[in-house]
Amino acid sequence: MRLPVLVFDIETVTDLKSGAHLYQLDLPEADLEQALMKLRRQDTGTDFQRLALHEIVCISGLWIDELGAMKLFSFSREKFNEAEILRKFLSIFDKRHPTLVSWNGMQFDLPVILFRAMYHGLSAPSLFDQGEIDTQKRYNNYQNRYHHRHIDLMDVMAMFNGRHFQKLDDIAHLLGFPGKRGEVGYHVPEYIRLQQWLRLTSYCEGDVLNTWLIYIRWLLLKGQLTSEDHRLWVQATIEYLKTQAQHAEFLEIWSKTSQQTTFTSSDFLSSQY
């Protein structure tokens, strides 16, 4: 494993102001989202909004430093507007050059970050340079799907074939991890409306944790981690989460879902959880 590692995920809502401007809609805010969804369905047959109209309300990450220490963090609308969330996240890459890990990050998270950073007039060469500034990034940059500076697990595990893409929740459950923990539907807009900031960040960080656990299993598959190293990383993750009160539910459910596969059934045997 090339350290440091940054596993990340974003949560978004529809940017109603930009959508109204794009489609020249003069409607009350309460009607805008339905109008934008209807227009999107007419264009594509799906409610999923075009990437440039996804306003970022949370970016969460798990940072693993060179010594193996873990730190979960979130930048959310509780304290920051979208431009500030982006500045804080992008500044990480000005100081460090981690291995970036995501689930569907190549098709969703990074393009959304790119569009929204441009919308706010931000600069992020450390993340988006493809060799124009640093010539070494011609051969290993965060945007090339075949490089390992950014590992989109959904993409690499599908062997870069879109027909084989899988949902994070499904793969997490199959491998003995918590997944969405019973969450049905997408509740982020409701979390924002009700100012349920802890639920928002816990939801986003939960996706990050599932991605991290799948990542180390993938490294085991590829022979980049030994079985013992993989076991130690799992145990380190369990011990770290014991210090994170907001993820007590994640840990509790993980202790149960781990019993669903033979490989993970012993993960919590040595734990006092």
Automatic annotation (TrEMBL):
Entry GO MF terms: exonuclease activity; nucleic acid binding
Pfam families: DNA_pol_B_exo2
Span of domain Predicted 3'-5' exonuclease PolB-like: 46-254
InterPro entries associated with the record: 3'-5'_exonuclease_PolB-like (IPR019288), RNaseH-like_sf (IPR012337), RNaseH_sf (IPR036397)
Entry annotated with the keyword Nuclease: yes
Record keywords: Exonuclease, Hydrolase, Nuclease
Protein name, UniProt field: 3'-5' exonuclease
Organism name: Acinetobacter equi
